[in-house]
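ok posting inputs for the zinc ion job
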Amino acid sequence: MKVWIMTDLEGVAGVFSFEEYTTPKGRWYDLSRKLLTQEVNAAIEGALESGADEILVVDGHGYTGINIEELNEEAKLLSGRPLLLPWELDKGFNAAFIVGQHAMAGVEKAHLSHTESHTAIQNVWINGIKVGEIAIVAAVAGYFNIPVVLVTGDKAACLEAKSFIPQVETVAVKEGITHGAAISITPTKARKMIREGARNALRKIAEVKPYKVETPIELKIEFTEESKSFAEVLSNRSYVEKIDTRTIKIRDDDLLSALKKWWL
Ligand SMILES: [Zn+2]
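and the output
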């Protein structure tokens, strides 16, 4: 069984702010990498216990969010940029995990929530439904008939995952009090829960439907006011429709093709 693991940093237990934890300039960045890598290891261990024999970990956060030296030796790591779609999901995986995930932009009590960029993007919609990174990853996996069976992150991310994939196994490792503050369980406890979650998730893989987006696709992206130049640049392309000064729309018959027109 082949398992693909997307990772992010803002939904990891013990990661508390963008500035100090999620960029290489932050004074706790090395700690964050360790915390993420160990949560990923817990997911790998659970997967191995349920029969996985090939595991690819994707460094979704960038800035080398995974420390390969500490990564479980049974996994391989996809890292570096650009990370082009579909992130190797076309290579015959049986299941996908999302580890360390945050909720989409604009959600109440969602710790460090954003959609792809917390500075550049205000909102994203696919076919009129507001989506975040969970639905986007699940849709790309679903395009290749791969179900997302496990999502770990803050409580809001877990609720969001369930709203798109009702059967998904989730592990909440913290709860947002405000956008910038959260109550986190300890990393040790989080790893135990994630290991168990991963084990359970693969055991019920047949119950989880791949997340499918209906075609044709209408992808709408609203940039933040400070980053509306992205909308101006994109709307100069023939396949992009300008909605207003900071919002664009892309229509396509194919999900992957639509996302590739947006992905820079
Ligand atoms: Zn993210």
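notes: The CA atoms of residues 114 and 159 lie 15 Å apart. The helical segments are 18-21, 29-49, 133-143, 155-164, 187-203, 229-234, 255-262.
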